[in-house]
Structure to design on (170 residues):
């Protein structure tokens, strides 16, 4: 009986820890200029994910070069960094069960032409160079990006009233 209870508690702990997975999303300058930040936030809230940090800011070259460091050898890298400086961006941290994978699915393919209808890029953009949003591609990338864009004290710890209606074992 004690072994069974311990197994149940371990399972609940793992499920609850999964609810705390975080991802980094950033609305790019084209998304901000088009006034669709609210639409993007709305989709993640309606899915049941929790916003834990958000900024409205002008990103500088140094920060953008660090953020996109994995693309630094690509021929489009200088243009990407320059483009990202053209206007404000909205970096955000979202939390929830499987949010990295689900978030990427919600965004759609990097190239909007390859994105399914119903995805953010499939519904709201046309060209890869104006694909309105960045999303972490793994938990490791999410942690790195969150730490790059946010200080620990900027991440808000809170529990939404509706969490019990989203997660079975909250």
């Amino acid at each position: 009986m004690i072994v069974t209870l311990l197994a149940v508690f371990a399972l609940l702990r793992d499920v609850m820890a999964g609810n705390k997975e975080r991802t980094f999303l950033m609305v790019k300058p084209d998304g901000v200029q088009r006034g669709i930040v609210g639409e993007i936030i709305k989709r993640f809230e309606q899915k049941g994910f929790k916003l834990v940090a958000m900024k409205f800011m002008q990103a500088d070259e140094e920060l953008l070069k660090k953020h996109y460091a994995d693309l630094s050898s690509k021929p489009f890298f200088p243009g990407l960094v320059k483009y990202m400086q053209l206007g404000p961006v909205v970096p955000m941290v979202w939390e929830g069960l499987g949010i990295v994978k689900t978030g990427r699915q919600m965004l759609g393919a990097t190239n909007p032409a390859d994105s399914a209808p119903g995805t953010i890029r499939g519904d709201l953009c046309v060209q890869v160079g104006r694909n309105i949003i960045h999303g972490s591609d793994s938990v490791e990338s999410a942690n790195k990006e969150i730490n790059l864009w946010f200080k620990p004290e900027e991440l808000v710890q809170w529990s939404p009233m509706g969490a019990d209606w989203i997660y079975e074992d909250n």
Q: What stands out?
A: The chain has eight helices and four strands. Strands lie at 22-27, 50-54, 90-95, 133-135. The CA atoms of residues 21 and 99 lie 6 Å apart. Residues 2-18 form the longest helix (17 residues).
